[in-house]
Design brief:
With 326 residues, the chain is of the alpha/beta class. It is built from 9 helices and 16 strands. Strands 1, 2, 6, 7, 8, 9, 15 and 16 form an 8-stranded mixed beta sheet that branches. The protein has an 8-stranded mixed beta sheet with strand order 3-5-4-11-12-13-10-14, with helices on both faces. The longest helix has 17 residues.
């Protein structure tokens, strides 16, 4: 049985950020993930300047695709707004593997099935034992399922479902475009160029509200990609895949004894833009600091908003969630 100070379940941005901080602080860390990195990860790959800052990234030395937008194109109810805003795009296939390698934590390919807590030690599948356990395994994280589901039941009104595809494409428009509530979609769609000829397009909406409207995500995908074909991405060919996650609701308990929840395992995506990378990174760092410095672990100020928390953020929050799970 392998022993360590901290076992992190999940090697995405939350887990790798926690591992990075813990290793810098001298902790003995092991990361387990059911996938081998680099691995395909469905995500628009949009990161904010706050993510760059939190990760202390030197953008000039980042070895993979990195594209900066000086403005966002926001399409809302027939209006086209050009919003000055520095944002960035990356490919998650590259970004996640780079973050995990940078952490210098040993990584074991392993799908966690059972978790027990006995005499101050966590036992995972009788293969690992640790003093501290961090759940960073996304929406289906086994740490959430085993230890936290009873105290943090997820609000169905905050479930987002998505369809997206990332393709090699010779895009001509280098800006990021966002569409909100098009054709009664309770959510938004995106066109996110990536450096060196890659493009991510996708659509996401609130599952409960789509069900009530009688439309599903595939219906909205078809309408969206037809519109893209006529202007921004002519002749692009897609084979979309889907996934589901939760916007920020009540996270009553983020720590139980020496187990922690981070990122999508806790349901931390922002309620204005459904953005999850920033909250994942911040919560992973916060969990590491709690372990290293014996600090309280609190997530009240971790999620924040993608657009700064002003009037635009509050309006999008209300329009997306209608107060569900607040």
């Amino acid at each position: 049985m392998r022993s360590c100070d901290v076992l992190i379940v999940g090697g995405g941005p939350a887990g790798s950020s926690a591992a990075w901080q813990l290793r810098r602080g001298g902790a003995d860390v092991v990361v387990v993930d059911q996938a081998a990195f680099p691995r395909l990860k469905l995500c628009a790959g949009w990161i904010t300047p706050e993510v760059v800052r939190d990760l202390q990234m030197d953008v000039a030395s980042y070895p993979h695709r990195f594209l900066t937008f000086d403005r966002l194109h926001v399409h809302l109810k027939g209006m086209h707004l050009r919003v000055p805003s520095v944002q960035h795009s990356i490919r998650r296939f590259e970004f996640d593997a780079w973050l995990l390698e940078r952490s210098q934590a040993p990584v074991v390919k392993h799908a966690v099935r059972t978790i027990r807590h006995e005499r101050g030690v966590y036992l995972i599948d009788d293969a690992f034992q640790c003093r501290y356990l961090i759940g960073a395994g996304g929406t289906r994280c086994p740490v959430y399922r085993t230890l936290f589901r009873a105290t943090n039941p997820r609000a169905s009104g905050l479930q987002t479902v998505t369809l997206e595809h990332e393709i090699p494409y010779d895009w001509q428009d280098p800006d990021c475009h966002l569409w909100f509530f098009e054709k009664k979609l309770p959510g938004y769609a995106w066109y996110v160029p990536k450096a060196n000829g890659w493009l991510n397009v996708g659509i996401g909406g609130m599952a409960d509200r789509m069900k009530k409207s009688g439309h599903d995500i595939k219906y909205h995908w078809t309408r969206f990609t037809r519109a893209l074909d006529s202007k921004l991405a002519p002749s692009a060919q897609y084979e979309p895949s889907g996934y589901s996650y939760y916007l920020r609701g009540r996270v009553e308990v983020a720590r139980i004894e020496d187990a922690f929840l981070t990122g999508d395992a806790a349901g931390l995506a922002t309620r204005d833009m459904a953005e999850g990378i920033g909250p994942a990174v911040r919560s992973g760092i916060r969990a590491a600091q709690a372990i290293l410095h014996d600090r309280p672990y609190e997530l009240d100020d971790v999620t924040g908003s993608s657009l700064g928390g002003g009037l635009a953020s509050r309006l999008l929050d209300w329009a997306m969630t209608r107060g569900a799970g607040a």
